[in-house]
Every structure is written in structure tokens, then in C-alpha cells.
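Hi support team,

I've been running sequence recovery on a batch of backbones for a student project. Most finish fine, but this one hangs at about 90% for roughly twenty minutes before it completes. I'm not sure whether the input is malformed or the queue is just slow. I've pasted the C-alpha cells below so you can try to reproduce it. Let me know if you need the job ID as well.

Thanks,
M.K.
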């Protein structure tokens, strides 16, 4: 059996005709920038998330940049976030001229460890960007307590978490601003790049709207140095079709995660992903298992670590990945290298000893195939083979010990 880590082909066979009709309609009408289709999507997305305003834009990365700019965050400012995320989270902070300050992650949830935030706050700290990574919600109740105490803004990175709830509220409606991506692999994806900013603060919404279109409140008037960051009308038309199915797709992801958790056997080498308290708190953009790396040494220099363990394929995780590959199951490593260890940040001095859990996790994570259309038969095939591979690894390591 051959199983991709992710595919859109099956979804297309379900909704393809509607997508084609929507796109043809736009092409025929010739309304290519702004207008009804965009307004319709922004309204639908606002009611889905439960905010007063949605500003669509070109990507999730742009959404983060627009949010930071709208809050006047720039040179000399610090923004607290996680180093275990897609690069764009920190990149957006650096793009506006501010500095990312990374707190370590919790090894069970993979989310930023809220208990470590307070010790990193100083007079330059302006905001916190919690990342609802893999669809799993950050504890927004406790995060808000901290942000209130220190008067910090919260920008939620919801790129992987469309429809994730925290205490019955959608992520993206809890902090000051929410940032979403419609990159094709996200819970709600379009057919290219796309993103949106969510807020219920009217003056922030107005400023974000202007920033996204050359800082312009009306044609040929410019209040700010802004961006050219619009959602394409063709993408909005596709999203207007796909948004009708998002709740169904999210339920399927939750069902698949539940099946995996039951079908995969306990094994000392393995840890299954953990949701932050309630089932609705996770929409499973990824199902990420941890294959323990006992040899990980907290004293290891991080660059050396990624040379020896990852590039040379010696971790138990890489063994499992290649064994799965041999029988047609394609898994992916999200993320192989933490953001603070990227060459792009080589000039920045991070307190690296503070991010040891993040560094360890990067040598252990493995994402199993996850998309709403994956069949039960495929879930069983993946789980049973993973069980066999882990048993086999146990025997091999006992022999060599
Ligand atoms: C995808 C992603 C982004 C960026 O979104 P784009 O639409 O690709 O620009 C930001 N943060 C996280 C956590 C992401 O997964």
C-alpha cells in the first residue's frame, strides 16, 4: 500500500466541480481584485471564528506582519514566542525590525511553556505570539492572565489551527489579533497562497485593512508605508466553496487522531501526541508522534547535534521513518531544526541553554499521514506497521546493547 503524508486529490474528487464553477465564474465576470467574493469570504470567516472583523491578505506570514505593524511593534521591541514552529512565526517578528525571544516548549504538548514566559519579560517586551501548533490550542486562559499582568498584546498564530477551540471559543478570537494561513496543507486551504487577520477591535481592523493595501484608507491617499497584500479573488471563490465543509473535515481529523491513538500500541520508545486538556482543543493539522532519543545529551551543542543525529540519520526516529518508507508509508519531520538554530539567525545570540527541550524534540518528532480523506484501512495499515517496526527496534537495540 502506498500512502502519501498529505494529498488534495481525494478532496478534489469530492468538491472539484463546485471549485471549477466558482473559478470559471470569476474568470468570466472579470472582477479580479476585491469586490463581492472577498467580502463574502471575510463575512463567512468572521462568523466561523466569532470575530467582528476579518481582513484577508496574501499569506499567513503577511497576516503576522500586518498584525505586528498594526500594534506598532518594530525596532528595539521584543516579542515572546516559540522556536518550535514554522519559520514564518519568528521571521515576521524580524521583518518588522523587532526581536524574537524564544521560550522553551512543553515536551508533552509541543507548545510554548507558559510557565517560562514571565522570566523573559522586560521593558522592551511588547507582545506574545502563541502558536497553536499542529492544531493544538495553547492554554489561552493562563496566557491572558500573564498578558494582562504585564500589559502585553497577544497575536495568535492560528495558521495550523482553523476551527480549534479553547474553552468553546475559536482560537483567533481570544487574543488581540489572530493570524490564519490558507496555504494548501492547512485545515482550510486554498489553491495557492492566502491568509487572514482576525480581530474584534474596530480601530485595529481599520489599520490592518489600510496596511494591507499600501497604507491606504481610500484610493490615492496613504496613511502608512504598507504592503500590497490582498487575497486573490480566485482564491476567495475557492475558499467560499471549501469553507462549507471545514467543520466536517475537522471532525474527520479528530476521528482519525482518535483511531490512531487506539490502534497504535504502547511502546517504551513511543509517545503519542497530547491534546491540551479537551478534545475540541485540537484539530490535528498534524498527528505527531515522538520516537524517544535516549542518546540525546543536554550538553550537546545544537549545531553539532543536528550534524550528528539528524543529518547522519542515527536517531530511532529516523530509523522508524525509513522503515515506514520501505512499505509505502510516507511520514514527515515537522520540524527538523529549531528556528533559533537556523543559519538565518546566526548573527543573533540566543540563550541556547534555555531551549533544550525544543532541541531534543526536533530529534524525536515524526508526523504520520494526516488528511480528512485517509481511509480506515490505511489508518490500520499505518498503525500495525508502526507497531511492528517499534517492536523490531526494541529487539535490535537489545541485541546491540
Ligand atoms: C504556515 C504557517 C505560517 C505561514 O503561513 P503562510 O501562509 O505559508 O505564509 C505561519 N505560522 C505557522 C505556524 C505556519 O504553520
Amino acid at each position: 500500500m502506498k500512502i502519501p503524508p498529505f494529498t488534495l486529490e481525494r478532496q478534489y474528487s469530492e468538491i472539484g466541480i463546485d471549485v471549477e464553477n466558482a473559478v470559471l465564474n470569476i474568470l468570466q465576470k472579470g472582477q479580479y481584485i476585491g469586490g463581492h467574493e472577498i467580502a463574502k469570504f471575510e463575512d463567512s470567516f468572521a462568523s466561523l471564528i466569532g470575530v467582528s472583523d476579518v481582513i484577508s491578505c496574501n499569506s499567513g506570514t503577511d497576516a503576522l506582519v500586518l498584525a505586528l505593524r498594526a500594534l506598532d511593534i518594530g525596532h528595539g521591541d521584543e516579542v515572546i514566542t516559540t522556536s518550535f514552529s514554522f519559520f514564518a512565526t519568528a521571521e515576521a517578528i524580524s521583518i518588522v525590525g523587532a526581536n524574537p525571544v524564544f521560550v522553551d516548549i512543553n515536551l508533552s504538548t509541543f507548545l510554548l511553556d507558559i510557565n517560562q514566559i514571565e522570566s523573559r519579560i522586560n521593558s522592551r517586551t511588547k507582545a506574545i505570539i502563541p502558536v497553536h501548533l499542529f492544531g493544538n490550542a495553547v492554554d489561552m486562559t493562563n496566557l491572558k492572565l500573564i498578558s494582562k499582568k504585564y500589559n502585553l498584546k497577544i497575536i495568535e498564530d492560528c495558521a495550523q489551527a482553523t476551527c480549534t477551540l479553547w474553552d468553546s471559543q475559536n482560537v483567533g478570537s481570544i487574543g488581540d489579533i489572530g493570524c490564519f494561513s490558507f496555504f494548501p496543507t492547512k485545515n482550510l486551504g486554498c489553491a495557492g497562497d492566502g491568509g487572514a487577520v482576525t480581530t474584534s477591535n474596530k480601530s485595529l481592523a481599520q489599520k490592518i485593512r489600510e496596511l494591507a493595501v499600501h497604507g491606504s484608507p481610500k484610493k490615492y491617499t496613504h496613511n502608512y508605508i504598507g504592503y500590497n497584500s490582498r487575497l486573490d479573488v480566485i482564491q476567495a471563490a475557492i475558499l467560499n466553496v471549501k469553507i462549507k465543509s471545514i467543520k466536517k473535515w475537522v471532525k474527520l481529523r479528530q476521528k482519525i487522531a482518535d483511531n490512531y491513538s487506539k490502534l497504535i500500541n504502547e511502546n517504551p520508545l513511543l509517545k503519542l501526541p497530547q491534546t491540551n486538556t479537551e478534545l475540541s482543543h485540537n484539530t490535528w493539522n498534524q498527528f505527531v508522534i515522538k520516537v524517544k532519543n535516549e542518546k540525546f545529551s543536554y550538553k550537546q551543542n545544537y549545531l553539532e547535534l543536528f550534524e550528528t543525529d539528524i543529518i547522519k540519520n542515527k536517531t530511532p526516529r529516523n530509523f522508524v521513518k525509513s522503515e515506514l518508507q520501505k512499505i509505502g508509508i510516507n511520514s514527515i519531520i515537522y520540524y527538523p531544526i529549531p528556528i533559533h538554530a537556523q543559519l538565518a539567525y546566526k548573527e543573533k545570540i540566543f540563550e541556547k541553554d534555555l531551549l533544550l527541550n525544543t532541541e531534543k524534540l526536533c530529534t524525536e518528532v515524526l508526523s504520520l499521514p494526516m488528511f480528512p480523506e485517509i481511509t480506515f484501512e490505511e489508518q490500520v495499515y499505518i498503525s500495525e506497521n508502526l507497531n511492528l517496526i517499534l517492536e523490531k527496534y526494541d529487539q535490535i537495540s537489545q541485541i546491540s546493547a
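--
Follow-up from support: It reproduced on our side and the slowdown came from queue contention, not your input. The mean pLDDT is 94. No action needed from you.
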